[in-house]
Amino acid sequence: MKLRKGSDKAAGLKFGIVAAKFNQSVTSKLLSSCLAGLARHGVRGGHVEVVRVPGAFEIPLVAKTLAESGRFDAVICLGAVIRGDTPHFDYICAEASRGIGQAALETGVPIVFGVLTTETVAQAVERANPVTFNRGGEAAKVAIEMVTLLRRITTKKPQVNGAGLALSSRRVARRSDA
Ligand code: INI
């Protein structure tokens, strides 16, 4: 059996972060702990770009745009949707989660769902706190793990001939034509 896992080695990797401004006191904490998490794993400040959007509903389009730009190994989405007295919460959560997942599948770039969806402000504050739940730092770790995992499962092993020498794909094709 072969077991494939990602790693926490992030030096040289580039990340885009999309952070909602809505519920600013919570999302600013998510953002700072996400940035700290990336730095802790060796990501240079110059390799991170942060884009602020109005609310969680706006995250998917911007995340997809960043993923398609080719500038980033992964995109991290941060937001906080807190239930109010109307069904607004359900619409925003549904669109944010569906849109982020769809953007990842369509682009092939890992896009992390670091959007809190909570019943109360207190729950959101607790989850953004770097010493309790630390969801921002967790999003950074997940992004690194997904980039390194995808690299491991998509990298082709070079084909070798009988003498153990690597064959280029053109030479392999010619041999099989013969
Ligand atoms: N956006 C959030 O990120 N969190 C919320 O809790 C929220 N609530 O509750 O309304 C919210 N609304 C704004 C929404 O994301 C859009 O910015 C807005 O609808 C304009 O498209």
Number of helices: 6
Structural class by helix and strand composition = alpha/beta
Low-confidence stretches: 169-178
Within the CATH hierarchy, at the fold level, what is the topology? Rossmann fold
Strand count, sense and barrel status of the largest sheet are: 4 strands, parallel
Distance between the termini: 35 Å
Radius of gyration: 20 Å
Q: Per the principal axes of the C-alpha atoms, what is the gross shape?
A: elongated
- The topology string of helices and strands comes to EHEHEHEHHH
Question: What order do the strands of the largest sheet run in, or round the barrel if closed?
Answer: 2-1-3-4
List cofactors, ions and other ligands. Answer: 5-nitro-6-ribityl-amino-2,4(1H,3H)-pyrimidinedione
